[in-house]
C-alpha cells in the first residue's frame, strides 16, 4: 500500500512536468524506479512518444535547408565519410574536425541539425580531433557520392538536384570545402624600395584535395562567383593546391567564407 501511494505521488508530479531526478529526490526512491513508473503510465495511457523518422526529401518529400545542405556537402566532400559498422542499424556521416577549430565542430553539428532535424548529432573524441557524427538510414539519399573506397579513387559527380542547390547556394559549398580541406593564411614577400628592403604581407586562401573531380566542383563554383584562382603542379601524392590570392577575390571569400575558428 505504501509503494502504491508513493507511485501515485510520483505520477502526479511527473504528469505536472517534474523531472525524474527531482521526483526521485522528493520521494526517496531510485531514479530508475521513477523512470519505469513513468514509462508504464505513458504506455497505459497510450501516450508513449514514437520514434521520429529520419527526414528525407527524396523518400518522404521533406523540405531541405539548401544553404545548410550545401555547406554540409562541402564538409563531406572534403573531410567526411559515411560508414555502417555491422553492429549498427544505420550508417553514420562523420566529419573529422581538428581540435584547433572548435567553432568548425559547432558549425558542422549545426548544419547536421538543420539538414536532419529529427536526428541528434554526437561528437567522438579522437587523437587531436573530433568526429562530428549523425546517424540516418537516408544518408545515401542525401549523399549519392557515397561508395566503396576513397573518394579520390572513384568518380565524384554532383547529382542534378545537388547541382541545382549549389547553383542556388554556391557560397555554402565553397565555405564547406575550404573549412574542411582549405585554409586562410597570410603570405609575405620582400621587395627593395630605394635601397630599403620592405616586407609585404597579404592574405590568401588555399584549397587542397587529391580528387580531380572534387577540385573541379570547387573551381567550377568559384568561376560562377567570379573568384579568380590558380592551381599548383600536382604533388607526388597527387594533391593539388588551388590558390585564391587576388585582392578582390580574397575580399569576396572574407565576406562569405572567412577563416576557420
Task: Output the keywords.
21% strand; elongated; 10 helices; 261 residues; alpha+beta
N-to-C SSE string, H for helix and E for strand = HHHHEEHEEHHHEEHEEH
- Strand content is 15-25%
Distance between the termini: 60 Å
Mean pLDDT: 90
Query: What general outline do the C-alpha atoms trace?
Result: elongated
Q: In percent, how helical is the residue content?
A: 40-55%
Structural class: alpha+beta
What is the helix tally? Answer: 10
State the low-pLDDT regions, or none: none
What is the total tally of β strands? 8
Order of strands, main sheet, comes to 1-2-4-3
What is the rounded Rg? 25 Å
Largest sheet: 4 strands, antiparallel
Give a verbal description of the structure:
It is a single chain. The chain is α+β, with helices and mostly antiparallel strands. It has 10 helices and 8 strands. A 4-stranded antiparallel beta sheet has the order 1-2-4-3. It is elongated and about 95 Å long. The mean pLDDT is 90.
How are the SSEs ordered, and which strands pair?
Blueprint: H1 2-15, H2 20-27, H3 31-44, H4 66-79, E1 80-83, E2 92-98, H5 102-115, E3 122-126, E4 129-135, H6 139-142, H7 160-168, H8 170-181, E5 182-193, E6 196-209, H9 212-225, E7 230-231, E8 240-244, H10 247-256
Antiparallel strand pairs: 1-2, 2-4, 3-4, 5-6, 6-8, 7-8
Helix pairs in contact: 1-2, 1-3, 2-3, 4-5, 4-7, 4-8, 7-8, 8-9
Amino acid at each position: 500500500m505504501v509503494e502504491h501511494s508513493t507511485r501515485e505521488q510520483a505520477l502526479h508530479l511527473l504528469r505536472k512536468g517534474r523531472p525524474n531526478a527531482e521526483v526521485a529526490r522528493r520521494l526517496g526512491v531510485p531514479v530508475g524506479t521513477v523512470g519505469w513508473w513513468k514509462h508504464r503510465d505513458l504506455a497505459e495511457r497510450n501516450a508513449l512518444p514514437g520514434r521520429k523518422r529520419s527526414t528525407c526529401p527524396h523518400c518522404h518529400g521533406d523540405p531541405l535547408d539548401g544553404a545548410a545542405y550545401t555547406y554540409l556537402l562541402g564538409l563531406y566532400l572534403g573531410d567526411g565519410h559515411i560508414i555502417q559498422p555491422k553492429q549498427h542499424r544505420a550508417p553514420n556521416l562523420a566529419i573529422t574536425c581538428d581540435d584547433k577549430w572548435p567553432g568548425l565542430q559547432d558549425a558542422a553539428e549545426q548544419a547536421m541539425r538543420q539538414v536532419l532535424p529529427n536526428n541528434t548529432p554526437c561528437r567522438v573524441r579522437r587523437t587531436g580531433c573530433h568526429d562530428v557524427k549523425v546517424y540516418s538510414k537516408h544518408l545515401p539519399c542525401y549523399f549519392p557520392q557515397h561508395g566503396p573506397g576513397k573518394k579520390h579513387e572513384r568518380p565524384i559527380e554532383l547529382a542534378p538536384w545537388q547541382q541545382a542547390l549549389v547553383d542556388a547556394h554556391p557560397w555554402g559549398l565553397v565555405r564547406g570545402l575550404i573549412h574542411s580541406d582549405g585554409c586562410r593564411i597570410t603570405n609575405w614577400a620582400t621587395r627593395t624600395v630605394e635601397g630599403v628592403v620592405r616586407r609585404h604581407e597579404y592574405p590568401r586562401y588555399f584549397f587542397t584535395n587529391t580528387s580531380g573531380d572534387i577540385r573541379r566542383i570547387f573551381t567550377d563554383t568559384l568561376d560562377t562567383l567570379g573568384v579568380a584562382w590558380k592551381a599548383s603542379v600536382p604533388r607526388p601524392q597527387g594533391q593539388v593546391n588551388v590558390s585564391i590570392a587576388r585582392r578582390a577575390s580574397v575580399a569576396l571569400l572574407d565576406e562569405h567564407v572567412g577563416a576557420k575558428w
